[in-house]
Fold each of these.
Amino acid sequence: MYRIAKILAIILGVVGLVIWVMIARDENPAGSGMVDLMINLGYYMTIITAVVTFAFAVWQLITHPDKLKKALISLGAFAVVLVIAYAVLASGTNINLDSLAQRGIVVDEGTSKMVGAGLWAFYLLALIAVLSMVFAGVKKILNN
C-alpha cells in the first residue's frame, strides 16, 4: 500500500510540475483554464494524502494492539479534559449577550459555553504539555 501511495504521489507531482511549467509559459494563464486544473490537482492531492494518512494510521492500530491500547488511553484522557473543561470550568454566563446583539453578533449561552470550554481545554492541554516537558527534563537531569 505504501508503494502504491508513493507511486501515485510521484505521478501527481510530475503532472503538477508539467502543469506549472505550462502556466508559467502562458501569457494569459487565467484564460487558459490551466490554473483551475492546477487548483483541482492540489485539491485531489490533499484528499488523497488525507485518506492515505488515515488508512496507514488505522492499519498501524489494527496490526499493533499495544499501539491501539495507548491510542485509546490517550483519547480517553483527551475526552476527560474536554468534559472537565465543559462541565466544570466553562460557564457561558460571563459575557454580556445584549451588547453583542446590539453589534449584530448573535450569540447565546450555549455558544458562549462551547467557546469557553474550548479555551479552557486549550489551556489545560498546554499546561499538561509544559508540565510533561518539565517533568521529563527533571527526570533526565536526575538520572544523569
Amino acid sequence: MDPLSAAQQAEDDSSIDLTPMLDVVFIMLIFFIVTASFIKEAGIDVSRPQAETAVKQDKANIFIALSPSGEIWIDRKNVPTSQLKATIEKLKAENPQGAVIIQADRDSKSKQLMQVMDAARDAGITQIAVATEAQE
C-alpha cells in the first residue's frame, strides 16, 4: 500500500459530517418561529394622556387606538363600532392569552373608550388597560 494513499484515506475518514448540525439548526429555527409572539399595532399615532401611576404592561397583543375624531383603529384598519366585538373576538382566537391595550388619544371621547372596553369584555377578555405616558 502506498503511504500517500493511506494518509489520504485517513484524512477522508476523519472529515466531519455537518448534516446532523444542520438538522439541529433548522429545528431550532422552526421552534423560534413557532413560539414567537407577533404584536399587531393599532395603526395610528395618538397623544396619550400622562399619568403618575403608569405601570408597564408586559403581555399585550391586541392594540386598539382611539383617534380624536372618533375613529377606532385595530391592526392598521379603521373598524366601525358595529364590527368591534367581532374583530376583537377574532384577535382573541389568534392569541387566547393576549391582553387588550387601548391607546386613547387625550382628546378622544370617554363614550368611545367605554364602548371599546365593553366590546373587549363581551369578547371574553378580562385584561384591559389604557395606555398613558409616564410623567417624569
Amino acid sequence: MDIDDVPQEGNRSLGGHRKALYARGADGQLALVPSRGWEAEEIVTRQAVEELDRLAAEAQERARAGTGSALEYHMYKARMDSLMLAQVTGLWHWRVRRHLRPEVFRRLRPALLARYAEALGLDLATLTRIP
C-alpha cells in the first residue's frame, strides 16, 4: 500500500486514537504511517465484539444452570477464546477446555485458579463467581 492509500475514514472502535500501518513511500521504502482506520475494519470489529458478548451471555446462563463454569463466562468477557486463554496461561489447550466443565473447575487447585485470575485480570473471588 502506498502512503497516499492509507485509509483515513475513521473507526469509532479506535476511540479517536490512531494506529500505525506500514506503507510504501515515494522512494519505495516502507514507512510507518498513522491511520484513523476504515469503515470495513469497524464493521468487522463490531461483529466480533457482538459475537463475544453473545457467547458470554450464553456462558453466563450455562454457569447459572450448573452446566458451565464461571471460567468460561469470564474468558468471553475478557474477549478471549479457549485457545487464547491457553496461550496466555501457558497451559495446554485441552486442559483449558477441560477446565470449562463445572465439575472440573470446582476442583482446581488455588495455584491454577490464581493463574487464570491473573490472565483474565481478575481476583480469585471474582473468577469463581458469576455476576
Amino acid sequence: MEMQDKIKLALAALIVIAGVAGFYMIPEAHGLLRPAAFAASLVAGAGIVWLSRPGKDFVLYAQESVAEVKKVVWPSRKEAQQITLMVALFVFVLALFMWLVDSGLTWLVYDVLLGRG
C-alpha cells in the first residue's frame, strides 16, 4: 500500500473519531445536530476511503459480488418446500436417535452398572 493511501485511511479514521467525539461533546439539547455530525463524519470518512486504492478495490469487489449473485439459480417454491421438509424430517430422526442413545446409556450406567433403580 502506498504512503498516500495510508495517509488517506488514517485521515478517514481521524474524521470518524472526531465525529464520535463530537457526538458526545454536543449537548443533547441540540437535538438532531449530534447524529447529523456523526453521520457527516461517516460520509466524509467513507468518501476519503473511496478515493484510496483499497477503497476502489472494495468497490470493484462489491460490484463483482453483485454480478455473481445475479448468476445464482434460486430454487422454485416447490423445491424449497421439499428441501425444508427433508431437513425437518432429518432433524426429527436425529433427535429421536439421540434420545434413544441417551436413554440407553442412562439405563446402562444407572440401572445396570450402578444398580440404582
